[in-house]
Known about the structure:
Elements: H1 2-17, H2 23-40, E1 49-53, E2 56-59, E3 111-116, E4 128-133, E5 137-143, E6 156-158, E7 162-169, E8 174-183, E9 186-191, H3 194-199, E10 210-213, H4 214-225, E11 229-233, E12 244-245, E13 248-249, E14 251-255, E15 257-262, H5 280-283, H6 314-330, E16 340-342, E17 345-347, H7 360-363
Parallel strand pairs: 3-15, 9-10
Antiparallel strand pairs: 1-2, 3-4, 4-5, 6-15, 7-8, 8-9, 11-14, 12-13, 16-17
Amino acid sequence: MAFCLRRLTDIMMGWIRGQRAPIQSIGGQCVRWVLLTYLLSGGWIPQTHAEAWGGYGRSLPSPRYEQDDGARTDYRFGVKKAFTPYQDPPLAEAASLPNPLLEPRFESYRLIVIVNKKTDPFWGRAQTLRVYKRGLGLIYYWLISTGARDFETPSGYYLPQGFSSRHWSGPYDAPMLWAVFFHSGISLHSSLDRDALRNMGRAAASHGCVRIEDHRAEELYHRIGHSGFGLVDQLDRQTGAPMMKGEQRRKVEAYKTLIIVAPSRRWTETSPARQATTPAVAAKGLTKPTRTMPATRLVLPAGPPKTGQPKLTPKARDAQKTTAAMRASSAPKAGETQASTRDGKSVKPAPTRYRQEKTSAHLGPIQQR
């Protein structure tokens, strides 16, 4: 800058003396000098901290917990303090709600956070947050405040995307301490405002983020950071069903924490992706439907012909009498037995075979042609 000032002074003196220097060349030298000064000062290097506020440096979101200034490997869990007028609801109130740790599709996650916006029998009380830890079950049940009307917090199944312990909101010019981002600029973060603390559990009053009491936001920030980084099952954001790659579940590298913003599709209502519901042959349409015919019963006429039918002819009547006489002569008389004697030995009668006559007694009258 001093060089530019000196050059401008020389130009002014030259004009006074009648010597006109080319302004274009002087301007180009000044621009090159300013650019060189900027590069040497390191202004082109991306800054990891914003300007200071309240005696602390502002932080920008980092994809890894370990890279954020607020990360602590020796953090001691067990929050007890709270800013007035905030108070925790009784933990027993959420003890009977469905436990997501029992769902097989969530087995790759060590920590599950449920943010509930509206009262529902499955999701529980409105404007509350529950935290489940594998091996321990339900560990936290807090009051929160989600997005107000026209700024509603989007429902779905999410993964942590960034950590920023000293974040500052540019659009709203407000602090967002202990922020854990999970959907674009939407995050879980602390709130220190007394009115905001008073509204927690009562009203949705934020601009889309999830407001949490400051001490609890810090606790949750470290819980998520300590959940471990590795491969987890990638879930559908709307249904929570596992994403499939062929017959295997698709994996993604992330923190082993699942953030559920409810009400959303209940995990008990959705089935894993690509789960077969019909046999392979039926699915390809290779089978044909079988047509079942109704059962029928065949009824044959029995006994003599009914009144009103044609009378028997003389020839048919004679055949009927002959058949009846033959049956009567072969039947045993009263007091006699079926067996007879021959030379003092008992001999059974030989079976008599009769030719079945097609008479009117069986099939109705036979017409003569």
